Amino acid sequence: MSITILAIESSCDDTSAAVLRDGEVLSNCVANQEAHSVYGGVVPEVASRAHQINIVPVVELALQKAGVNKRELDAVAFTRGPGLIGSLLVGTAFAKAYALSLGIPLVEANHMQAHVLAHFAEPPKPSFPFLCLTVSGGHTQLVLVHSHLDMEVIGHSLDDAAGEAFDKTGKLLGLDYPAGPLIDRLAQKGKPVFDFPEPQIPGLDFSFSGLKTAILYFLRQEKANNPDFIGENLTDICASVQNRIVSILLKKLALAADQAGVREVAIAGGVSANSALRAGLEQLGKEKGWNTYIPRFEYCTDNAGMIAVAGYYKYLEGAFASQDVEPLARWKF
Ligand code: KG4
Ligand code: ZN
User: Fold this and answer.
1) Cα(267)–Cα(253) distance, integer angstroms
2) Pocket perturbation via mutation, ligand 1, pick of 188, 244, 301 by most ligand atoms within 8 A of CB
């Protein structure tokens, strides 16, 4: 029996819809919201309003690109959380109404689990158990993945997420939001000549707030000596910050892989689009004898393709959501 799923993702500032058939993603469309860059971060109400405008055209585009008629759908999967509540409400309400009108089941997905499951959108797919470092704008997690739906968070950030460390550094440097991709690009032209401190957090947890403060004080001091310090050293500052964030992430990843005794190692989430993290994981994987898995860019940042994959595995288990399901701003798995 063939299974066709429409998936909706609206947890933050990207409105996305995807269509999956029998485990294969047929379309994965994203409407980005440019409006937030001028504010230096995502403004929740602006995001909710933009989702409201984008959701119908994005869903129509996803169906059209997949060559699927809505009458062929077997279920609607949606992001229940975690995320911005207003943004989640738009996707949840849309998914409920769409499923109800077509008389098909609803399937809820956890956004952070779905980032991990992006690895099953296309080959090469990791084998179980594997370790996944999920690094996004809101979360930094080390996840031990036992099966598609059985995952264990064995380490997480105690304060800022890795993506936040990029974005907040960008703000200090006067860069637009989100700064992660900009810092990545600028860093490629610079050298990591400035040494930022490494947080001393025991075990598998992370901390990035100290790094942010260290960068703030460093820039304040340097600017007192030379008001043009940032302009004259931007690429080197970016390379140095990126180098430190990546070294913190890879050190904990190596520790977790050793402790868990796994050699299948993956990265996921928006920050996994970072070129230094991707190159660093490949290098470390060679040294350690790991099989490493890095998603294509479209499956790193927020996308409904990953929600469709999560929905597919839930559908196979018959794990459906009820029509009175509510979105969850916080949702641990
Ligand atoms: O997973 P994602 O798209 O959304 C959340 O679930 O948060 O992640 C967004 C985060 C932002 O902090 C953004 O700056 C970061 O991913 N990001 C990057 C890169 N591309 C996106 N960070 C560093 N380097 C990149 N190339
Ligand atoms: Zn995300």
Assistant:
1) 10
2) 301
Torsion of CA 234, 240, 243, 247, to 10 degrees: -150
User: How buried is residue 257: exposed, middle or buried, by Cβ count under 10 Å (0-12/13-18/19+)?
Assistant: buried
Choosing from 117, 166, 272, 300 the residue with most ligand 1 atoms within 8 A of its CB, the one to mutate for a pocket test is: 166
- Topology of domain 4-117+300-316 in CATH is Nucleotidyltransferase; domain 5 (3.30.420)
Q: At a CB cut-off of 8 Å and minimum separation 6, what does 188 contact?
A: 239, 275
For ligand 2, the distance from its centroid to the CA atom of residue 230, given in whole angstroms, is 30
pLDDT in tens, 263-322: 999 999 999 999 999 999 999 999 999 999 999 999 999 999 999 999 999 999 999 999
Indicate the pTM of the whole model.
0.96
Q: Ligand 1: distance of its center to the CA of 155 in Å?
A: 19
Q: Quick check: CB of 273 below 6 Å from ligand 1?
A: yes
Write the CB contacts of 41 (distance below 8 Å, at least 6 apart in sequence).
Answer: 167, 171, 177
3-state secondary structure of 109: strand
Residues of the chain with CATH 3.30.420.40: 4-117+300-316, 127-295
| pLDDT tens, position by position, 15-51 | 999 999 999 999 999 998 887 877 888 999 999 999 9
- Return the CATH fold of 127-295: Nucleotidyltransferase; domain 5 (3.30.420)
